[in-house]
Specification:
42% helix; four-stranded antiparallel sheet; alpha+beta; single chain
Amino acid sequence: MKIYKLSFDPNLQSLRVISYDNWSKYGTPLLQKPVRMADQWDPKFYAVRPISFSEFYMPQEHTKKEAKALFDRGVPDYIFSRSSLFSQSAVNALSPLLLPTGEFLPVEVSGTNTVVYAYHCVHLSEAFDTVESDFECSSPGVISTFNRYVFRPEMLKNVHAFRLAADALRTSIYVTDEVVSVVSSHGLTGFKFKLVWSDNEDASTTDQGGSKKDKPAAARIPNKGKVKAIGKVLSSDDCVMIRRSRIDKGRSLDVIDGNADVVGDLIEGLLNDDEISADAILSVCLNRLFMEFQEGGFAQVVYNMLLDEGAIQKGIEALDAINAPKAAKAFSIALRDVQKLDEKVLSRYLNAAAYTRTSGFQLISAFDSSIEKAFSKEDILELHADWLRCRPRLQILDDQEIDGQIALRMNAVPDKEARFAAAKNATKE
């Protein structure tokens, strides 16, 4: 038997989460719990869209021609975007192996007729041998580093996908070699599998689709003991944290997304906004405002953000903070004038099934030209990334360090069960 950790191919096209609000409030707490939730699920919990070529293209990694060829292959059968997303083809092929320990929840892809499926693995396995394995905990119940995996194969009979009971706050999925075989035989794309254990003790660690590697470097790192907190835990005065690998890529978007990734992980850990760095949250608000506008103009900004109390205003405050006064002014005027629209027109627009179906769409879209003009004079991505790089409490950390800091904050949340319960109850309203 072989056990693999499920991963994805970052070189292929992907889907981007449109709004983290409903996902972090409803979806994440439920997916972290090992309880089937199909009867509570609503696709609105999780909104995704295809990324554009400009978001996909990274000059440091591919030539434009190479990137275009990869992009034109379309969205693969498996991606990870806050959770594991499977195509219909992948669901058809893998359901016999994955459904006994999980469920597929439908997710609509904005702007398309496509539906993908979030896989919710509900099986917390005790097969991970906590005595024979070598691992490090940042705090009780949270594993920050796996140096060596050991599994009890007798506890995985007829089990092909599972999470670790010893690391239950994580949603990482582990699969057996049968899953790898089905993916290969059906030619499914986007899947990557990292071999973490084999009943053949001489097996090397291998990334499927790549080359054999030595045992991971983490296996050679001595135990560092308990993680020491960096910054002010559970405080808006906390530090901004970005992975070194993101900073080293050099692209503005990587810096911005690097902050958003950490904030997303903290929110998944049930931290509230006021328990996360105020600068980090401000950056996420700006990123959302910018991406909503890039995706669908000011009409989409209003449709997705106006009823989220203060969300647009926070994005405008962030534009002022990064020294983009023209864009801040353009958005401020547009927001002011939209709030002056006839109440019935605005209400009908906000409650429409799709934001292009009412007269309000044309009225609100009229503001696009002034905002685009401001964007043409201010490089928002560059200004935003530079602002993040200059944060006085910025911490650029290696993966192991940042995972430890995230885990430490997750464990410091004082009322996890109450927050889980509140999120679960909110889905029933």
